[in-house]
Amino acid sequence: MFNKLKDKLNNFKQSIGKTIDEKAVDLEEPIVESVEESIGETTEAPIEDTMVEEVTEVVKEVPAEPVKVAAEPSTQGQSDVPESQPEKKASFKQKIGFAQKAKALVFEREVILDEDDISDALWELEMALLESDIAITVAEAIVEAVKDELVGSRKKIGSNTGELVEQALRNAIYNVMAANVFDLDEYIEKADKPVHIVFIGINGTGKTTTISKMAKRLKDMNYSVVIAAGDTFRAGAIDQIAIHAERIGVKLIKHQEGGDPAAVVYDAVQHAKANNADVILSDTAGRMHTNVNLMAQLEKVCRVSTPDLIIFVDEAVAGNDAVERAEQFNSAVPIDGSILTKTDADSKGGAAISIAYITGKPILFLGMGQGYDDLQKFDPKWFVDQLFE
Ligand SMILES: Nc1nc2c(ncn2[C@@H]2O[C@H](COP(=O)(O)OP(=O)(O)OP(=O)(O)O)[C@@H](O)[C@H]2O)c(=O)[nH]1
């Protein structure tokens, strides 16, 4: 899942991590030189690791502003270092000199990046996001957020620059995906029953399979479910959903092929009310938002049996097309959220990253396979973890 995108993010991590490391080395060199100069005043020996360790030990001993005490011996014979130990005092003074200069090197490995340092890498990142089918406004928002996090502020980079970059990427992607998170389980639990959910989208993206997965999931949660076979348009659609309903063991309300879908959905709602069912899942025929007749039919379905939720279903593998369709459907029939199918076959991840940001409506679930249990409740944190696992 999302393998190409993972590679691209990893490339960015490495390229910008290298830039930070190079900049940090540039900043550290003058410190090393000044430490060497200081050492040179007292010894001919080159700087060695053991010296840095020794300095580290001394840094721990040195108070925040130690110079007044140790650097200049008191003319009145007052010093924190006893007069009776002149050699020890001199050595302590030298070590403090190194310690202060090396402190930044040893403990405070920090860097301040400016935009020029990372502008090439950010450009590469934006290209990589666009190649991954992430919508342009979303790619720009991610790049801007990464830039804001990395540029300008003083960064403690520690030993692993990759982590610093990864965190900036994680935060940026999480923030574009976490818009309006909506918990369907909580909604169903609290809502008056029956809860009526209508599924819309184009042909062949996995709507019927998704309704079946959802029916199984809700049944497993001990809800009673009724499916409305509202796709009366496509030959074989009613038989297809009837097979699923029978396998899962939930009630199906169906009419003849070519019948009025609004009447099927109305009957399903009446049946649910009469039998105290908890949830009605209404299938609808696949359609483009530009198909005037089918959109009018969909409006009729929604008018006759007002749904509590309208969920847009599309396939993640369609990338930007899926996002554009979601936007178009959302302006025709306001949706409450999206489900993206076939994420198991999607190497780019662009639709999943873009769709909530573009529509302003949350992703609710991801389809991750053809089995009934291959429906993953969407959690932006889980998603971001997948990208960096
Ligand atoms: N790999 C994979 N395949 C899926 C997933 N969801 C659905 N499919 C497959 O996609 C194909 C189309 O699914 P359907 O559920 O028939 O599509 P539909 O949108 O109902 O089609 P229409 O009835 O024409 O609107 C089927 O072969 C499904 O098994 C998924 O999450 N992963």
UniProtKB/TrEMBL annotation:
| Region feature (Disordered) | 63-87
Enzyme Commission number, as recorded: 3.6.5.4
Question: Which Pfam family name is an example for this entry?
Answer: SRP54_N
Q: In which domain of life is the source organism classified?
A: Archaea
* Low complexity: compositionally biased ranges: 64-73
Q: Which residues form a coiled coil?
A: none
- CDD domains assigned: FtsY
| Binding locations of GTP | 201-208, 283-287, 341-344
Question: InterPro entries, from UniProt?
Answer: AAA+_ATPase, P-loop_NTPase, Signal_recog_particl_SRP54_hlx, SR_rcpt_FtsY, SRP/SRP_N, SRP54_GTPase_dom, SRP54_N_sf
What SMART domains has UniProt attached to this entry? AAA (SM00382), SRP54 (SM00962), SRP54_N (SM00963)
Q: Which UniProt keywords apply?
A: Cell membrane, Cytoplasm, GTP-binding, Hydrolase, Membrane, Nucleotide-binding, Receptor
Keyword GTP-binding in record: yes
Q: How does it sit in the membrane?
A: Peripheral membrane protein
Name the enzyme group at the top EC level.
hydrolase
For the keyword Nucleotide-binding, the answer is: yes
The record's comment on protein family reads: Belongs to the GTP-binding SRP family. FtsY subfamily.
Q: Which NCBIfam families match?
A: ftsY
Q: Which HAMAP family match?
A: FtsY
Q: How does it assemble?
A: Part of the signal recognition particle protein translocation system, which is composed of SRP and FtsY.
| Protein name in UniProt | Signal recognition particle receptor FtsY
Q: Which organism is it from?
A: Methanococcoides cohabitans
Q: Which gene encodes it?
A: ftsY
